[in-house]
Amino acid sequence: MLASLETDFVRTSRPLYSHLVTLLESAIARGDLPSGARVPPERTLAGRLKISRTTVVSAYRELESRGLLRGYVGRGTFVCAPPEPEGTPFAWRGKIAAAALRTSDSTLRDVVRHASDPRMLSLAAGEPAIDFFPNDAFQEAVAHVLRNDPASAWRHGPTEGQPEFRHAISDRYGVPRERVLILGGAQQGLDLLARCLIDPGDAVIVDRPGYLGAIQSFRAAGAKLIGWDVAAGDVDELEDLLVRYRPKLVYTNPTFQNPTGITMPIRIRRELLTLAQRYRVPIVEDATYHDLYFNEPAPPTLRELDGHNLVIHLNSFSKVLAPGLRLGWIAAAPSIVEQIAIMKQRLDPHTQNLVQFAMARLIRQGAFDAHLKRIRAEHARRSGLMLAALQRHVPAGALRFARPQGGLYVWCRLEPGMSATALLERALAAGVAFVAGPAFYPDPAGDSQLRLCFTSVLPSALDAGVRKLAGAIEHMRSSPALTA
Amino acid sequence: MLASLETDFVRTSRPLYSHLVTLLESAIARGDLPSGARVPPERTLAGRLKISRTTVVSAYRELESRGLLRGYVGRGTFVCAPPEPEGTPFAWRGKIAAAALRTSDSTLRDVVRHASDPRMLSLAAGEPAIDFFPNDAFQEAVAHVLRNDPASAWRHGPTEGQPEFRHAISDRYGVPRERVLILGGAQQGLDLLARCLIDPGDAVIVDRPGYLGAIQSFRAAGAKLIGWDVAAGDVDELEDLLVRYRPKLVYTNPTFQNPTGITMPIRIRRELLTLAQRYRVPIVEDATYHDLYFNEPAPPTLRELDGHNLVIHLNSFSKVLAPGLRLGWIAAAPSIVEQIAIMKQRLDPHTQNLVQFAMARLIRQGAFDAHLKRIRAEHARRSGLMLAALQRHVPAGALRFARPQGGLYVWCRLEPGMSATALLERALAAGVAFVAGPAFYPDPAGDSQLRLCFTSVLPSALDAGVRKLAGAIEHMRSSPALTA
User: A154-176 burial, b if ≥16 CB within 10 A, otherwise e?
Assistant: First the structure.
């Protein structure tokens, strides 16, 4: 074997040790050096090939790190195993980052997949009445932009967003212009905030139950999640958590909350802000549903009540117009806007211009507010239809829920002993999707709860969807094994 | 002071220690406990308030962690400093994550900002001839989608992308359907790949010089960047790097490379793939410019030459159509597509549907390929115009460059002693932007180089842009202090 290496080892311009690695590797591959064979001692090989011992050591170490050789102190170095034959599938699994493997929850993806599956009645995705989308006004706005200034639509735009759109939001929502940053959806904002504000191990207080996308983003950033029972709204409990965990931030969705539908009263909002100021903790306010009241407007946002510049306000056009727009915004202190913009450039140098210009026009022309007015009435109507269907089809006592005053969801509790996760499996088989409670909890809990969206299917399909759900519940009830 | 604490300390339903923290904090704020004052020993206070010593210890520790108290072994605990008065600006700087502070390079954002600044002639941003964008065909496609199936445009879509669009790409580029994943731009793909594949400390081999967005994404994920001199294309050097650093992946932009414009010959492509297979290292191929040849089509992509399923192919419509579309795609092994989709849902549950449907239609109808044909000719023309302008206006010897055969860039070397960073400052003041060389290097280097984009301004403005640049160079030459 030494002889054949000597023959093969011709001087090249390549680094000697990588040349030697290749030769040894080929010898192993050909079987000239079978598994278990002892390779020559380093000094011997170096002498025969007239190269330095260091070169041989490097080559052996390289082959060791690749699992082809293994050294035993006092015994020598041995061939470990034959290399994989050509054509072996590339071992991708071993290439995935540890952090990526940590978070493999695919709930959000499943929700959006079901929403776009025509064979599925989806009460899962949080979608407004998209059949009310102002298509004509939108198309007119697109045509206007492409007629007047196509270059601005197609070239790069500012990372913070188009000034025209930032100003329209500033005027519509009463936020100073320099505090507005445009996003490709609120989820992008949560991801950016998590990356800007969270170091691994930081504590974050989140609504419990609360928005699953926020839970995922903060968890992926390595945060330790502390749930605050937002329905109870106990401010003393919150203070206790602030003192005990010293969180990096508080995330809350205080209006027509996802998933519970509840709204934080103005008194609690004020106390929350006082605590945040006292403990120097920023609040991330998810205001996605704030404009979606049925009759009574919601209390002012935390942003509006904030006297200390500590609220980061997150908003979106996904729930008031359409998720397909991929458009959201943040209002925050200019230093945070700057930080987020620097982070954003790395993953999305700018948000699509065309949709920004079009939305700016819909806001300026009043089409956006006219649309809001229409969907408030329609959402209230669909909420009533869903509650009536639930009362009509679901066996008495199987499901408890409160009547929502806005937002998109009915939050339900199953009768004791019934699992929402098991029910979901049954429901999907029957062609109806919802979101099971555990997705909304930062800890293992919530399997007796489920979220239904009353706006995501047409009124004509609402009744059928609820009937399928009721059928799945009846089936569970009649199979005691399933409810164990 | 003890007396007043005793008076104020009434039993509440709140946790005792957080109640005590508040009381002590107020006493400090009011000045009852001035800076430097010694607070009662824990045992004493516990006795007087009739609470456990543990509660007092917890309260003191809490105030210590907030910087209000400081304990000295054997001496007792003292008030540190008065709290900030009400209305003090919220100290946002202290809230930023360490990882976010690590990466504050804003080059990408500056580039896109200059591109959208009407007062600036930008030779910086990499933009194709957007004045050739097929506006009518695009608007027709949008109208078609909104007329036929507005719900599919506005509701959620699959995280992997709309099947219709994935299939159009699959057919156009010859990739199996299940290997295609749609992105909101190639930069999103780089961010996702960095997060999916890189653990902090992993080595990554990148083109040197190479795409700044890739350098930023990999660096932000904590990678150790190893530059491979892509222009020299020395495969032995690459093998040496593979052996020495055991990188997690190789990132390369092999065709009409950004920033150099060079194209890797097919022989080197094959050797690169052989090495990647031998060392089990995935290759991320950035193929953004592959279709942008002037006369001669480029060699096959690494994806097409890959016999071992180890290439992740990254592509985009930003350079062949318009960056404003925010649309890109990845072709990879199905297990990688799955991993990326799970990561993507967290930051962008799905890419905008409308633009996917519209682009699918432009591809199917042939409008996309017709457009490619038109811009190839136009880009070749603009490249010639820029070279002519450079020869006309720039003082002889001040700038060296090669004639590009495709892509969007002329890569220039300044005469010795001249700094591209200093020149950029001068050029921006004169109203013309470019990208200085250091942005493309993973290590501190490149200040004698700069990248000019010949497609991002109209031909009528190209000459003026180059003239301003030449003026800035002349100014630098005549101010010896600046070239020191």
Answer: bbbbbbbbbbbbbbbbbeebebe
Axis crossing angle, helix A53-65 with helix A42-49, rounded to the nearest 10: 120
Tally DSSP H helices, then E strands, for chain A. 19, 15
Give CATH for domain A105-128+370-483. 3.90.1150.10
Inter-chain residue contact B216 with A346, CB threshold 8 Å: yes
Domain A2-79 indexed as CATH 3.30.2310.20: no
CA distance B245 to A44: 27
Bond preceding residue B259 cis, omega within 30 of 0: yes
Taken in order B361, B363, B366, B368, the sign of the CA dihedral is positive
Q: pLDDT per residue over A303-335, tens digit each?
A: 999 989 999 999 999 999 999 999 999 999 998
Give B93→chain A minimum CA distance, Å. 8
Map out the domains of chain A as residue ranges: 2-79, 105-128+370-483, 134-369
Give whole-number Cα distances, B461 to A155, B385, B388, B408, B454, in Å. Answer: 16, 11, 13, 16, 10
Range in A385-389, A449-453, B4-8 with the lowest mean pLDDT = B4-8
Question: What are φ and ψ of residue B163, in 5° steps?
Answer: -50, -40
Cβ contact A199–B89 (<8 Å): no
Contact assignment for A65 to B246 by CB distance below 8 Å: yes
- Alpha-carbon gap: A72 to the closest alpha carbon of chain B (Å): 22
State in words which class domain A134-369 has.
Answer: alpha beta
pLDDT for the residue A75: 72
Separation in Å, CA A218 to CA A211, A372, A433, A439, B340? 11, 31, 26, 14, 18
| Residue B420 to residues B107, B438, B483, Cα–Cα distance (Å) | 14, 8, 10
**For testing contact with chain A, the best of B92, B148, B179 (most A CBs within 10 A):** B92
CATH number for the domain whose boundaries are B135-366 = 3.40.640.10
For residues B166 and B187, give the distance between their C-alpha atoms in angstroms, rounded to a whole number. 19
B-chain residues near A216 (CB < 8 A): 345-346
Contact B15 A282 (CB under 8 A): no
β partners of residue A226? A205
Give the other-Cβ count within 10 Å of B297's Cβ: 11
Positive or negative torsion for Cα B101, B106, B112, B113: positive
- In Å, what is the CA distance from B104 to each residue of A220, A339, B381, B443? 21, 8, 37, 16
Residue written as tokens 């071993």?
A94
**Block mean pLDDT (10 aa), chain B, length 484:** 70 74 82 80 88 86 77 74 52 78 73 80 94 96 96 94 97 96 97 94 97 94 94 93 95 98 97 94 97 96 94 98 98 93 91 98 97 98 97 95 97 96 94 95 95 95 96 88 51
Could you tell me the end-to-end alpha-carbon distance of chain B, in angstroms, rounded to an integer?
66
Residue A78: CB atoms within 10 Å: 15
For chains A and B, CB pairs below 8 A equal 315
| Average pLDDT, integer, range A440-465 | 95
* Cβ proximity of B312 and B143 under 8 Å: no
Residue of A63, A346, A375, A408 to mutate for B, most B C-beta atoms under 10 A: A346
Q: In this complex, do A345 and B106 lie within 8 Å of one another by their Cβ atoms?
A: yes
Contact A188 B153 (CB under 8 A): no
Whole-number Å distance between alpha carbons of B164 and B353: 10
B249: helix, strand or coil:
strand
DSSP 8-state code for residue B65: H
**Rounded to 5, what percent of chain A is helix, strand, coil?**
50, 15, 35
Q: Which long-range contacts (CB under 8 A, 24 or more apart) does A80-87 make?
A: A80/A35, A81/A35, A82/A28, A82/A29, A82/A31, A82/A34, A82/A35, A83/A25, A83/A28, A83/A29, A87/B307, A87/B308
